[in-house]
Amino acid sequence: MGVELIVAALAAGASAGVAGTATQAITDTYGLLKQLLKRRFGGREQAREALEAQETEPGVWQTRIGDDLRQSGAAEDEQILAAARELIALADPKTAAMFHIGTVHGAAGQFYAPVTIDQRTQGPGAGALPPASPAAG
User: Could you identify which of 4, 66, 96, 106 might form a hypothetical disulfide with 62, taking C-beta atoms 3.0 to 4.6 angstroms apart as the criterion?
Assistant: First the structure.
């Protein structure tokens, strides 16, 4: 999800700039995100150059730098992800809602489809979970 968040944030920041709706906070956060990515992209000149584009489509960003985001570790860098979250929240709150993740206990990894986690172990609804399948035993 890190790659998708970063490319969505870059597109939102660029869109706000192109539309002339960028506040100083958006401009500053967009600049910070690009600066952090450039540091991660050391030795990846093509990716560094791609960051200079004012592209407004996440799919184009994904195509241009998606692999570099994964391979460089940028997609897991907490500082980069925090800047991307902040930028997308400022520039495109509607899209930001798609990336909202609350507290999750006991889930790790990458999920490629909607996931429901039910943690009814105490309080109302406790014991309402279906029994485990015999194969899971």
Answer: 66
Residues 6+ apart with CB under 8 A from 77: 36, 40
Single-letter residue type at 84: A
**CB-based burial label for 88 (10 Å; 0-12, 13-18, 19+):** buried
Work out whether the CA dihedral 40, 43, 47, 49 comes out positive or negative: positive
Nearest Cα neighbor of 24 from 90, 105, 72, 81 is: 90
pTM value is: 0.68
Q: How far apart are CA 80 and CA 65, in angstroms?
A: 14
